[in-house]
Amino acid sequence: MSIQMTTVGNGNNSMTPVVVNSRPDDIRKRVIGADTQTKDLSRCGNILIGLSWVLVILTMPFSLFICFKVVQEYERAVIFRLGRLLSGGAKGPGIFFILPCIDAYARVDLRTRTYDIPPQEVLTKDSVTVSVDAVVYYRVNNATISIANVENAHHSTRLLAQTTLRNTMGTRPLHEILSERETISGNMQASLDEATDTWGIKVERVEIKDVRLPVQLQRAMAAEAEAAREARAKVIAAEGEQKASRALREASEVIGDSPAALQLRYLQTLNTISAEKNSTIVFPLPIDMLTYFMRASEAAPK
């Protein structure tokens, strides 16, 4: 029984490592073309294995430099014996043993890789041509499957990422592409992760870097935004004028009810005028006399 590391998503695109036990038979079932039952090697194969052991013993200690291999902490070694996957799954990290002439192995890097998707010309759902580029973060989740099921897992994942980006952007209008980047990135990550599971690849994250619009469309959107800002500015100015007129009407009602308030407002206006400019203002009649004549005219019989 071997122990492998798998990852489980927690809802916000972050991956939590989980240790699970997996048997070599389970791994072989996921390998395309592998038998579901373990078969004994042929008589010829057993003879070759015996001869290989004899060769190792006769050439010791020089054969030890060929038989013992070391892989790093972030690597795994997939061993093929006479063209068949060796039972026990991928080896490593650390030291492992191979037989000369009949064993071949491949190193697999388990570290996360970054692929910068080149800009893709996409026709959106509302018939607008845009240029979109993105970044994909992925890693090898199962070393054995990534070697046995696909010729080049990294190259296949990158080509699939380009196609998925074009297909996803082509089904959405322009305003959704500009405003819902996180949702689109999550959908792309789920689609890529599902498609690359049989390749032993785990897509951890997809991020849309930039969306480039045509120059004519940029100018049209800028003009539309400027017109919208001007319309909002006019509405705000009109609301301010309306509030100011209401305040002036209320002030006039208060001043009309109190003659003393009118005189105080008159004196305040004189103070403001004298503070702004050095000028002399001449009034031929006092304001109290004007008020007396106004009251006399109102009291005269008609």
Automatic annotation (TrEMBL):
Residue ranges crossing the lipid bilayer per the database entry: 47-71
GO cellular component: plasma membrane
Domain Band: residue ranges: 66-225
Subcellular location: Membrane
Domain of life: Eukaryota
Pfam families noted in UniProt: Band_7
Keywords, in A-Z order: Membrane, Transmembrane, Transmembrane helix
Protein name as annotated: Band 7 domain-containing protein
UniProt source species: Cotesia typhae
Highest classification ranks of the organism: Eukaryota, Metazoa, Ecdysozoa, Arthropoda, Hexapoda
